[in-house]
Structures
1.
Amino acid sequence: MRISLRIVGFCGKIYPVLELYMSHVYGEKGTLCFNLADVDTFVETNLKKDEIKDYYTKKWDNTWRRRPHKRHLFEKFFTECEEKKNAFEHLFEEHPIFVAFPRNHLIYNASLKDYEFFRVFDTYTAFQELSMYLGSKAQSEKPIPEIPDKIMVGAKGFNEWSFRKEPGQKKRSKR
């Protein structure tokens, strides 16, 4: 099993992603896992029984295996990403979407379809999230000037006699 780490940034939040690869007769097949349950499902469907048992034990095994993959290490990865989510805030200043790889590789405005992000948000919800995020970041370019009341009254067409009778006008009789 081979592992590739990624972090998808979407609208101010980060989503850790593990791409797990298994070698098959027909080549390598990668599966994207957004949480620990996805990793468990991948392990249970692709590994042998003794490897699954080894995956769930916390005990470190120094056998012939080069690097045993343990569940608690995957769990640690997801919890560390949750704890360090504030470290990614500066990346959202210019772009609402990014994908970060290990060794400082970063793709802004990446196509989320390639990372199966539709498993996290369906397209309508993703559009709504993006719209709300960009709307909250919008600022007016020019400040609205404050106009004194006396000038505003004249601009609206009122004068000092707008709501009063002018002197010399007769009182209208009701008919």
2.
Amino acid sequence: MAQVHTLSKRQRAVLGEQTSKFIADTKAADQTLEKVQASRHATEAELSARSEQAEQVTAELDRGHAALTAWCQADADLADALSVAGLPTGASALPRIRAELSAISERLSDMDRQLQPALAAHARAYQEARSIRR
């Protein structure tokens, strides 16, 4: 192809108008291909960066959820221990602690239910993007 591009004007005239059109078309096609490849590389780089960010966010959410769940369990265990110790319910904050712990547990469950579809959708989109990229 490079040899065709370097033909002299005289050689092109000999080969005819069709060849000149072919040469112009191939130059345009080469330029288009270069643009498409550059765009593809940019898109792949962006996909890779966003996938890495999503993995980091997912890992952080998992760590945060695990920590909150552990704290909630520790608080519930403490409330149970206080109850077993025989503290009178009317004289302590135990009912309020239990209510708060229950509300926290419910919020954690709600958060988990809300995030699961989003994380699943992200995983599907990531897999589709990876399959298209290949």
3.
Amino acid sequence: MAVVQKRARDYAKGAGALFLPLGFDLPAAEDPFVAFMQQVRRRLGFAPDEVWCCAGSGMLARCLSKAFPESAIHAVAVGLASRHEAQAFGPNVIMHATPLRFEQECREGAPFPSCPNYDRKAWVVAAREAKGRSIFWNVAG
């Protein structure tokens, strides 16, 4: 993944383009992400007990933590997030591990379009461990 990111960064620099890192983990993207998540929260009409998601860069978990401050955010570390502490993402974020490395495909299915290397791994953990009124924030859908 580091090689792919470097090549993308080099390409963007040479082409005069903006490089967007995985997870769009940029300060400029955070406010629009949180605003959209707050719209979803209003449409739900309730604050879920738990919000489940996958975590790579941590951007998604960090934004969900701000948009759903009264909910427990359960982030399943897939890839880069395993290098970070949950508190770095928000006070209500709980990190979970997956036994699979990023490059390993999850062979279990999900009831929605999902990436077998990423959000499907989080779905499997959420389906097994979620309690109360829970939602799953899908990435690949």
4.
Amino acid sequence: MKPTIAFFWVGPDVKTPTALVDSIRFVMKDTVEIVQLTDKKTPLVPGCNKTQRFTLSRNIMIARLQAYSKYRYTGGFTFFCDADCLFINPLVVDTGGKNLLLTPRLYDKPINPEFPEFYPEFVGKTFNQVMPFLFSAIATIGDQSKTFDILLKICKALPDRFHRWYGDQYSLFLAVENKELNFGYLEPEKHHYLTSKAIPSEHLRQLQDEGVQMLHFKGKGKINQFSTLTNLKVLN
């Protein structure tokens, strides 16, 4: 059974997830299944094997957790990632016998409690204190819908501001704090390499040689996903 890479995306502009899927096909060809998780209106992303559509909340954090909890597993391995990512090497994950693998945050810094609106929970805190796990790379073995049901229930009970921002990561933190999840770890250096810059071909080659599998373009650097994809193709 082929492993599955699943991503969540809603909205009429699908350039970002199209770049992700293009990179997966370029690096892994047809050795993986790709599943688009979305609402009833978002266009199809070219290159996906399947599109799973759901009736989702208008609040993006709730909608994402709904999509993950409703995802129809076909068995085997699923890697959930953000759409603003690129694969530069084939996906290889050592599960260590765990059915749920989370990505720890590598780099810590103070969190601004005023952005994008006021979060009293974050006053005087760092990211690692309130969101030590990233939601942009999660691996599962078998049907883990109950895991995301737990996170969805937690998020729904939080103030509305968490339904708009941060709700997925903060719910994950609370679930771990409450010992509701049994999990192992992904390797962020390999499975979630953060960047805000376009990466030239020669640097991509170096990252490939170092075993990096997925890049994640954050913040204002999201636009650099496209030029980096072009640079990736120059390597071959």
